[in-house]
Amino acid sequence: MKVIVKLFAGARELAGAEEVSVELTAGATVGQLREQLIANYAQLRPLVGHAMFAIGAVYCDDSVEVSEQAEIACIPPVSGG
Amino acid sequence: MKVIVKLFAGARELAGAEEVSVELTAGATVGQLREQLIANYAQLRPLVGHAMFAIGAVYCDDSVEVSEQAEIACIPPVSGG
Amino acid sequence: MIEITKSPIDTVKLLEQVQSSEAGATVLFVGATRRVTEGRETVRLHYEAYETMATAELQRLEQAARRRWPLEQCAISHRLGTVPVGEASVAIAVSSAHRDAAFEAGRWLIDTLKQSVPIWKQEQWADGSSEWVHPTPSPGKK
Amino acid sequence: MIEITKSPIDTVKLLEQVQSSEAGATVLFVGATRRVTEGRETVRLHYEAYETMATAELQRLEQAARRRWPLEQCAISHRLGTVPVGEASVAIAVSSAHRDAAFEAGRWLIDTLKQSVPIWKQEQWADGSSEWVHPTPSPGKK
Question: For chain B, which end, N or C, has fewer CB atoms within 10 Å of the first or last residue's CB respectively?
C-alpha cells in the first residue's frame, strides 16, 4: 500500500517537501514506516530516528498498524512554547 | 517611660482605638511591652499573644529593647493577599 | 516596583512594567475576592494596612526575590479598602530569562506576602456579619 | 479555551476569559521571544504547527489539567508565524479557588505543551542564519 506522510519544520526542509509517499506492505507498523522513510530519504535519518508518528492526529507508538485511510504525520521533536 | 503603640484591624477594634499608650520602665523589652499591653487591655489578650511587634516599621522579637523615639506598632497575625 | 493603592489594580500596567526583551518568561499572579469561602458567601472584603511598613516590607520582599532568582523585572500591587467579589486585591508580576525563576519567584512572593506584610482583610459576609481575619499560627498549616 | 493564531496574543482577553467570581487565584504565564539565547542574539522566532493536531493536543492538555486540579477556567493561546523579540509566542491563564491549583496547573501546562504539542520554532539569528529547533531527548534534561 502507498501512504502519504506529512512532514514539518526541519524534516520538511531536509526532504524539500511538505509530504512524501512511502510504499509499505499491507499491515505494516509505524516502526516499519519509520525504517522505510529513512531508507527512502537518507537525509531524514537524524530527525526521523527521534520523531514521533501520528495517525489521525493521535500519537502512536512503533507497534501500531499503519492505517491507509487516516492522515499520517511524522512529528520531529517539538519546540513550541 | 510612656510609649504609644499603634493598633490595627481586629486589635484596633477590640481596643476601640487606633493607638494606646503604655507605661513601661526604662529599658523595657518588646516582651514586657506585650505583657503590659495585655495587663492594661484584657480584651487584647487573644490577639496580642500571637502578635508581632515592629519598632520603626521593622519586626522585632521579644528580646529587643523598646525605643521611646521610634514608631511602635502591634501587628496581629496578617491576612493580606 | 511596589504599589499600595485604594484604586482597582491595573494588571495590564503591571504586565507592561515587567516587559523586557531579555525575558523569555513572565508570570502574573492575581488574587481576587472569591464568592465562597468554606461554604459561606462573601459580599466583599475590606483591606487595611500599616501602610508605611507594608510598603517597606514589599520592597524587602522584592529585593529578596531578586537576590534569590535571576529576575528581569518584578512588580507588586496591593489594593486597600473595599474589594468586591471578582475584583483583584493583589497582583504580582515577575519576568526572567527562563520560566523556572518566574514561577518560583511568583509563588514565593505571594506566599511570603501573606505571611509577613502588615495588611489585614475583613470578611463581609452575605448574612451581614463581618470579621477581621487573623490566622492563628499552627505548625501543620500550609 | 484553546486558540492557535497568527496574530499577536491578547493577554488581556485571556485574563478576561478565566475571570470567575469563584476564583480566588489566577495565574498567567507568558512565553516571549528572548533577545539572547546561550550568548547568541535572536532577531525573531518563526513558529510552524501541525495545526489540526496541535489544537486537539491543546484541548487534551486542558482536559487533563481540569481532571487533575480543581480549575475554574483555563485558556491557552499559541501564536504561529513570525514572533519578534519581546512579543509573546504562548500564553496560558488558569483560575481556581486557591492558588496551589492555579500555580501547579499553569506550570504543568507550559511544561507539557513544550513536550507534546506539534509546534516547532525556527531561530532566526542576528548573524542572518536560521535553524529549526528539534531538542534531542536526553535523560538528564530538565
Answer: N
